Fold this sequence. Notes:
Elements: E1 2-6, E2 15-19, E3 29-38, H1 41-48, E4 66-73, E5 85-88, E6 98-102, E7 106-108, H2 115-135, E8 144-147, H3 152-163, E9 169-173, H4 176-184, E10 189-192, H5 199-205, E11 211-216, H6 221-228, E12 230-238, H7 251-255, E13 260-263, H8 274-287, E14 295-300, H9 304-312, E15 319-323
Parallel strand pairs: 8-9, 8-11, 9-10, 11-12, 12-13, 14-15
Antiparallel strand pairs: 1-2, 3-4, 3-6, 3-15, 4-5, 5-7
Helix pairs in contact: 2-3, 2-8
Amino acid sequence: MKAVRFHSTGGPEVLVYEDVPDPTPADGEVLIRIEAVGLNFSDVMRRRGDDYPEPSPPPFTLGGEVAGTVAVLGEGVTWLNVGDAVFATPGLGGYAQYVCVPATAVILLPGGISPVNAAALVVHGLTAAVALRKSARLEKGESILVEAAAGGVGSVAVQLAKLDGAGTVIAAASTPEKRALAERLGADASVDYTAPRWSGKVREFTDGRGVDVVIESAGGDSVGQALDAMAPFGRMVFIGQSSGKAASIDPWRLTAPNHTVTGLYISAYTAFPETASTLMELIGYVAEGKLSLQVDTVLPLAQAAEAHRLLEGRKTTGKVVLQPWEN
């Protein structure tokens, strides 16, 4: 089969489209014929060799969320059938035409949800839901700032925050076009978080109080600005650092305003029983037209390097998806 791997870390050019052996499902696994694989900024980080919570030993095949059809059932798998439309979170191996996944990590794909839309929903939708509900404990009427609000996670978080009863939702994005998209998705206001002292704008939108919750994804200098934009007892959920720059926080800075900073690594949540029900809830929102999935770029798997260039260069909005069987 065809797959994309990197044999050493570096720029997008290290991604190699090549032939690899076909996988065979072990007991309790299924083989999925992948129709769509969703890209995440974590893919860029692992390819670059950035610090990451899990190792990426080369040759390494990226791809943590896939949608497709069941091709082969491993021994002991009885509740799925060959040909079932499914999506799954294998964690790695998705930049390929086939992947083996434990049957317990597979969820049936309801009719009306295409593989591309499913790939846009799994990791980004779960990250947004867990960030808002588990990590931030967002309550009805509270205000929230969502960074990278036109991106995959951000675009879902803006909409889901509104669905969950948030008060003022402020979108942070780097261009007028991205901020306009976030406002069309339901944000009440938007700011350019590449501008100097943008935290002051956030305070203006909240009558000087600041926001109760921040979904932080840029890292670097934006972390200090986001802390400046937080209300007393505010909570920041750190989900990534797309800037590639680390941030240092003096704990004393958190003390007087009673601020909380917490991290989120979504892979740790995928084994929880409530994950499946959360995904089904999100799928229901999509089917009902309450949640709009933003799929910006769909490319053949062979163009994975170009997809990384676009994602890393912040030239995309919404989700970037690769299709392994397209030319």
